[in-house]
Design goal:
Blueprint: E1 16-17, H1 18-23, H2 29-46, E2 58-63, E3 66-71, H3 88-117
Antiparallel strand pairs: 1-2, 2-3
Helix pairs in contact: 2-3
Length: about 120
């Protein structure tokens, strides 16, 4: 990815990933949780199948209206049946499974930050 192709904040600076934002303590997981729930609902309501969702695959774009969360990788489900991306029940199942994995990763980050903050 060339530098001009990166997601940028309204001020022109390159947006940080969710992982970077949490590690730099720009905000907490609790603070960003409503935005994460909105993202999850967006994926579910639009049937967007994700295979891997990670704090490193989510960009936090700062705008005048707040933070936009943008998924930059992990869309699709290349390693299983093509039916998964066509059947709503299977899409939702894939999203929920991937989201559980994200929750685990976020809990690890939070635990790590609590150890360093002590």
């Amino acid at each position: 990815m060339c530098i001009r192709d990166r997601v940028r904040n309204e001020d022109g600076n390159i947006s940080l990933t969710l992982r970077e934002s949490l590690e730099k303590q720009i905000f907490s997981i609790k603070d960003i949780q409503p935005k994460l729930e909105q993202l999850k609902e967006y994926l579910l309501s639009n049937g967007i199948c994700i295979r891997d969702i990670s704090p490193s695959n989510i960009i936090c774009q700062n705008t005048a209206k707040g933070i936009n969360l943008i998924i930059i990788d992990g869309i699709g489900y290349s390693n299983i049946s093509p039916l998964t991306i066509r059947l709503p029940r299977l899409i939702n199942s894939a999203i929920i499974k991937a989201w559980k994995s994200l929750d685990i990763k976020l809990a690890r980050i939070e635990k790590s930050l609590n150890k360093t903050g002590s």
